[in-house]
Design goal:
Layout lengths: L2 E5 L2 E4 L4 E8 L8 E6 L6 E6 L6 E3 L7 E6 L4 E6 L8 E7 L14 E2 L3 E6 L1
């Protein structure tokens, strides 16, 4: 079993920045790929970014490329999402997820464990 706990969400003005964290416990964090997803009211959960087991390969949704950076610290069992130049369209609940593979993929259904989510609200 894996436990994932997100933190770092909040209210920020357009153009601002936030850094989300996801603390993992329950298994060998460094052996598995991780991802960030988000869900806005009335919308399906969508892919934001993913990272492979070592941090050497990352994937991004086109909507966040160049603004968001995913990273991980395997010594601290923690996943991060640095979000810059935030826009009102980035408003959503952000979830971290873990999959039982070293390979990062952008599909929601490929992830096995999920956190409870953290709210990010960007005001215009």
């Amino acid at each position: 079993q894996v436990q994932l706990v997100e933190s770092g969400g909040g209210l920020v003005q357009a153009g601002g920045s936030l850094r989300l964290s996801c603390a993992a416990s329950g298994r060998t964090f460094s052996s598995y790929a991780m991802g960030w997803f988000r869900q806005a009211p009335g919308n399906e959960r969508e892919f934001v970014a993913a990272i492979n087991w070592s941090g050497g390969r990352t994937l991004y949704a086109d909507s966040v490329k160049g603004r968001f950076t995913i990273s991980r610290d395997n010594a601290k069992n923690t996943l991060y999402l640095q979000m810059n130049s935030l826009k009102p369209d980035d408003t959503a609940v952000y979830y971290c997820a873990s999959r039982q593979s070293i390979v990062a993929v952008p599909t929601t259904t490929s992830y096995d464990y999920w956190g409870q989510g953290t709210q990010v609200t960007v005001s215009s």
